[in-house]
Design a protein that fits this description.
Blueprint (H helix, E strand, L loop, with lengths): L3 H10 L6 H4 L15 E3 L5 E2 L5 E3 L3 E3 L3 E11 L2 E2 L6 E3 L6 E3 L8 E11 L2 E13 L1 E2 L4 E4 L2 E5 L9 E6 L7 E6 L11 E3 L6 E4 L12 E10 L2 E14 L3 E4 L8 E4 L4 E2 L4 E3 L6 E8 L6 E2 L6 E3 L12 E9 L2 E14 L15 E5 L5 E4 L11 E4 L5 H8 L3 E3 L6 E3 L9 E10 L2 E14 L7 E3 L37 E3 L13 E3 L6 E6 L5 E2 L1 H5 L1 E3 L5 E3 L27 E10 L7 E10 L7 E3 L3 E5 L1 E6 L2 E4 L10 E11 L5 E6 L12 E12 L9 E2 L6 H8 L30 E5 L5 E5 L14 E10 L11 E4 L3 E4 L7
Parallel strand pairs: 2-10, 11-19, 13-19, 21-28, 29-35, 37-44, 48-57
Antiparallel strand pairs: 1-4, 3-8, 5-6, 5-9, 7-8, 9-10, 12-14, 14-17, 15-18, 16-17, 18-19, 20-23, 22-26, 24-27, 25-26, 27-28, 30-33, 31-34, 32-33, 34-35, 36-38, 39-43, 40-43, 41-42, 43-44, 45-46, 47-49, 49-50, 51-52, 51-55, 53-54, 55-56, 55-57
Protein name: DUF4958 domain-containing protein
Pfam families: SGBP_BT4661-like
Keywords: Signal
């Protein structure tokens, strides 16, 4: 296998392409797809500033090769934009050039791209998104502009830079971020120090990815009251060290072969370390000889025509000294040579790979697929050829597909995202007798994994109608239907509301969507990854057949155990509900890898903390509750698109029946119809985030820890964690004034003209320091008031957990 050094260099030579299963733009929802399943994949340019130009590389694709590219539509902040050669597409390749940006209006530009494939025209809506920012304000500098990171020093990873402003310019920066560019994978190596405003640092968890000899240039996105600003080429982290990790060829290919009496040269080695004053020297050769020389500048080892080296089975072993401006290093036994009578030229007909006819998606892997036996060619070097498709190049760039340069063995990791079809992996082999080389392909047929499934449904009770009791008589209350049914609308799937935490129903698996085959399923509760009421989560049991049961309260009344107080007590703390996950694993009897997915389950247990009296609504003290339908809003953290929801206000209580079981009921007739004329409703506090993927830097929990994603969102909004000025609020809770700013808000509830509400998401702050967007769910305490007052910090305000937000970058909107 390639060394770690060579692998790292390979990654830096290519731009990492986002995983196709997550970041693709599919025609399935905009145009009918043909039998090839044609899909086009662009990298997204997120941030750019005035005066900058950029060429977005050609898209990858699934299906027949695309041609005749055209830009079909451009929008600016969802309004049609007249393109005056600001965006130009290459008709043949699909490359998009962004140019003439000096006078462009700031905002989010969405570019729709059309092309032909196999004789059909496809239109990809919003295939690329570009966030045009304002120019950097005057008086802003970064010191130093070039940070020297010397990896030979003990605390080298503490190197940093500071954003500064001139006091007389009156520049006030409220938010700091590294501008996004998906073609620069190294952006995730850096972040802003959460404890020092404007300080750019190296992320501790990513420091080992920095390569000595490389420079990393960052653009900054700075937020002021005037908007978002691009600081282009703001700072460069220049990583240096004395020479390290010298590499000639794979260990398996040693010794190299030199033909007696003829001119021979080694490959030019790669090396990590600073390039200033870089020199190479031969420190020793065993057996000892002076026949070999080394190019001081490149490290290439050679012997001239007519050299006196004799044929021998004993190889010459080299120790090479490499030095630069920061020091030197000896690399013992790093290269060896055997002198032979004759080096066989490559015989093209002997170089072949046996096709691999079955490589599954989602877990399928290939280990060391070597060329067929009988290959003829002395001291060969194998490498991927430039003729590979963009899809294959993308996997190579991420080191998912790798090759041993000495043996030609190809490996494919189990996290590959290759599309289901036959792929050709082009390999070029060269040697000293055939420097042009011979290109052959390993064909790989990728199959859909029959264990793959789209979703698991435990159903919902959100589609049940809430029965209105016209008499408002507690003693004759009509119970709210909590029975579980197969959802008819997927937006309600796996959402369950048990008001007061009562009448909990065990949940049976109702449906598994698997279109590729028949599998067996096992189920397991995901521990240590939930938010909400601990008493609910700790009482959950998931059986191997998928049945979810809830531990009931000790009094046997059929209620969920919510909080430490008795569920009968109308004054206990607000019930949060719970968000958790069930790990579902699909297997079958063939060789296809098992597929596991974590399925989120949402439990809502809304309740007011106490009975409240509103003279302008009703003279009695009642338990008021806001019910959202659905109570989970899907949101794209990148685009800000959200799913709609509706709200209703109910009076919720409990009536004693003959059998002693408490029943939920609702009173909403007559004077209650006017409630929505008085309500003010907003997020309050107590926010928590449940991470749905394996990104350890987006930790589950509240915003107190820097590893929690919410802490990073707070930082993106320029809001301190310890303040009550949360980036979720629509109102100033003390004054009652509307207090929103696109620069400092992450999300908020906005009233609409029809007495309903919409969720507003700032689609640029829901990401971590690694520049990866949220994939998980958020809940927080929400406060409402029926007294026609927007002052939500005192008085007859009611706190509940009415609405959950599910962040999913693949969500495209309704």
């Amino acid at each position: 296998m390639k060394s770690k050094l060579l692998s790292t260099f390979s990654m830096l030579r290519f731009f990492i392409v986002a995983a196709l299963t997550v970041f693709c733009v599919s025609c399935d929802k905009t145009e009918t797809t043909d039998s090839t399943g044609f899909i086009l994949h662009y990298l997204g340019v997120t941030d750019i500033g005035p005066g900058m130009s950029y060429t977005l590389q050609a898209p990858t694709y699934k299906g027949s090769a695309p041609y005749d590219f055209t830009i079909t539509k451009i929008t600016l902040d969802e309004e049609t934009f007249s393109n005056n050669d600001n965006f130009v597409i290459n008709v043949e390749t699909g490359e998009i050039t962004i140019q003439n940006t000096d006078g462009m209006t700031s905002g989010m530009y969405s570019i729709s791209v059309g092309c032909y494939s196999n004789g059909k025209f496809f239109d990809f809506k919003d295939a690329v998104q570009v966030n045009m920012l304002l120019a950097v304000p005057e008086g802003v500098t970064v010191e130093p502009a070039e940070v020297l990171v010397n990896q030979d020093e003990e605390n080298w990873a503490e190197a940093s830079a500071q954003v500064s402003t001139e006091a007389d310019k009156h520049v006030s920066i409220t938010g700091y971020a590294i501008a996004q560019d998906e073609t620069k994978p190294y952006l995730s190596y850096f972040t802003f120090d959460p404890n020092t405003k404007g300080k750019i640092i190296i992320r501790e968890s990513e420091k080992d990815k920095l390569v000595a000899g490389e420079s990393y240039t960052l653009n900054l996105k700075l937020t002021t009251k005037a908007g978002e600003h691009m600081y282009n080429n703001a700072v460069t982290f220049k990583v240096v060290s004395k020479p390290r990790d010298l590499f000639y060829i794979e260990t398996e290919a040693l010794p190299d072969l030199f033909e007696t009496g003829t001119e021979n040269k080694s490959v030019i080695p790669t090396i990590a370390g600073a390039k200033e004053e870089l020199k190479f020297a031969i420190k020793s050769v065993t057996p000892e000889t002076t026949a070999f020389t080394i190019n001081e500048a490149t490290g290439q080892i050679s012997v001239p025509e007519g050299n006196s080296l004799e044929i021998s089975e004993t190889p010459y072993v080299f120790t090479i000294t490499a030095s630069n401006a920061y020091g030197s290093n000896d690399f013992e036994g790093i290269y060896s040579v055997k002198v032979v009578a004759f080096i066989e030229p490559i015989q093209p007909e002997t170089f072949n790979y046996t096709p691999v006819n079955k490589l599954y998606q989602l877990g399928g892997s290939l280990e060391s697929q070597k060329p067929d036996e009988g290959f003829v060619g002395g001291a060969p070097t194998f490498q991927f050829d430039e003729s590979n498709s963009e899809e294959i190049k993308a996997q190579i760039a991420q080191n998912i597909i790798s090759i041993n340069s000495g043996t030609g063995a190809i490996s494919i990791a189990n996290n590959h995202t290759l599309t289901a079809k036959t792929h050709s992996i082009q390999v070029r082999v060269t040697n000293k007798k055939n420097k042009e080389g011979v290109v052959k392909a390993l064909t790989i047929t990728v199959l859909k994994n029959p264990n793959d499934f789209e979703y698991v449904s435990w159903g919902t009770n959100m589609e049940n109608e809430i029965t209105i009791n016209p008499g408002k008589d507690k003693n004759n209350a009509i119970p709210i239907d909590t029975s579980i049914k197969q959802e008819q609308d997927e937006k309600y799937r796996n959402q369950f509301r048990f008001i007061h935490g009562r009448d909990a129903q065990d949940l049976q698996v109702l449906h598994v969507e698997n279109k590729n085959g028949t599998s067996s399923y096992t189920y397991e509760l995901v521990r240590n990854n939930y938010i909400g009421e601990a008493d609910i989560f700790n009482g959950i049991n998931v059986l191997t057949d998928g049945k979810i049961t809830f531990t009931k309260a000790d009094n046997g009344n059929g209620n969920l155990k919510v909080g430490k107080a008795n569920a009968n007590n109308g004054t206990h703390a607000s019930a949060k509900g719970c968000i958790f996950q069930v790990k579902v694993t699909a297997t079958n009897n063939n060789e296809a890898p098992a597929v596991s997915k974590n399925i989120p389950i949402f439990i809502s247990t809304p309740k007011a903390p106490s009975a409240t009296k509103y003279e302008n609504v009703h003279s009695d003290k009642l338990v008021y509750t806001i019910l959202c339908k659905p109570f989970v809003v899907r949101a794209n953290p990148k685009t800000g698109k959200c799913s709609p929801f509706t709200t209703e206000i109910h009076v919720i209580g409990a009536a004693e029946k003959d059998n002693g079981i408490q029943k939920n009921f609702s009173l909403q007739k007559g004077d209650y119809d006017t409630w929505t004329n008085f309500i003010s409703w907003d997020f309050r506090d107590d926010y928590s985030y449940c991470n749905f993927d394996d990104n350890t830097t987006h930790g589950t929990g509240n915003n107190a820890s820097p590893q929690n994603l919410l802490a990073q969102v707070w930082s993106n909004c320029g809001v301190k964690q310890a303040t009550t000025n949360t980036p979720f609020r629509y109102y100033n809770h003390e004054t009652g004034n509307i207090d929103i700013s696109n620069n400092t808000k992450a999300a908020y509830i906005k009233p609409t003209s029809n007495g309903q509400y919409e969720l507003v998401i700032n689609g640029d702050v829901w990401k971590g320091d690694d520049n990866k967007f949220a994939n998980g769910a958020v809940m927080g305490a929400m406060r409402f008031n029926l007294a026609n007052s927007t002052s939500l910090d005192s008085g007859t305000n009611i706190t509940q957990y009415s609405l959950f937000i599910w962040f999913d970058e693949t969500y495209e909107g309704n």
